[in-house]
Amino acid sequence: MATTSALSTSLRAIKAVSINTAREAIRSKVFSSLIFFAVLLILSSIVLGEMSLHNEMRLATDGTLFFSTMFAMVISVYSSITLFYTEIERRTIYTILSKPTPRWQFLLGKYLGVQILTLMVVLFLAILSAGVIFYQADTIPVQIVWAFGSLYLQLAITTALAHLFATVASPLLAGFVTVACFIAGNLFSQLRIIKAMLEDKENPLSSLITVIEHILPNLESLNLSREVTYQLAISGEYIMHAMLYSISYIGIILLIGMYTFSQKDIS
After folding, report:
1. Contact at 8 Å (CB) between 73 and 38?
2. 2, 9, 4: which is closest to 100 by C-alpha?
3. Exposed/middle/buried for 61, CB within 10 Å: 0-12, 13-18, 19+?
4. Looking at the domain assignment, is residue 216 inside a domain?
5. What is the pLDDT of residues 177-193, one digit of tens each?
6. Is residue 208 part of a domain?
7. Over the stretch 27-69, which tens digit does the pLDDT of each residue have?
């Protein structure tokens, strides 16, 4: 009975923090500005399509996916780090932790709140992108559903990293490192090419790249822009593996984040 009560209390605390986080993010003027520019650039894909010769759908698909990915990443990373540090700067974190709410519940609530925001943003951009593609080609490739689903998985991993870095670094450094991880994670094939070149020259730096490959999230494997552009089939096995990989990586990163946050001096 006591265990059930403790679990219920924990869930209520996490829910309260997550809902409050999502509300604060949506009310942010920066959020509104980023959404405005995202809509503007996605709609500009129509102009790019009109300027092409018989490649309207390809340009519309590539353009909408690229702009959606960039702006969704910026919004989710900015919200993750800013909302975390806002609690410390306003000193509201002391009120929350004194209820008492364990630090791991606070961090998990913040993460889930950002996931609510990220899901809303991805859904909005997916609908807008589908509208642009349909306008250009009178059809919507079914792969676009999986493309934006995999984009959400990329952002879920990225925001987990953002929360981890926010517990150990300044906002600017945490943001920079998170964005760097997102970009590097989408360049996994290039890393392997560089590693092969270094191994051919027996350069010891190849060992460093091996370490990076094991630590860095392989976001490139979650990028389905090629499948959408060329309308390639996406297997159910791939979707299952992508979800398992994402959940496992997120779980590990959040556990590390909870530990580092528990050791952080916020006095």
Report:
1. no
2. 9
3. buried
4. no
5. 999 999 999 988 888 88
6. no
7. 888 788 888 888 888 887 777 666 665 666 777 788 888 889 9
Of the candidates 88, 244, 38, 251, the one whose C-alpha atom is nearest the C-alpha of residue 161 is 251
Judge whether 110 and 23 are in contact, CB under 8 Å: no
DSSP state of 151: H
Domain count, the chain: 1
Other Cβ atoms less than 10 A from the Cβ of 146: the count is 17
What is the value of pTM for the model shown? Answer: 0.91
- Domain membership of residue 27 as a residue range: 2-186+223-263
In angstroms, the CA 162 to CA 80 distance is: 6
Residue 198 lies in a domain: no
Residue 206: inside a domain, yes or no?
no
For 73-123, how does the pLDDT look when each residue is reduced to its tens digit (9 = 90+)?
Answer: 999 999 999 988 887 777 777 677 767 778 888 899 999 999 999 999 999
CB 225 within 8 A of CB 63: no
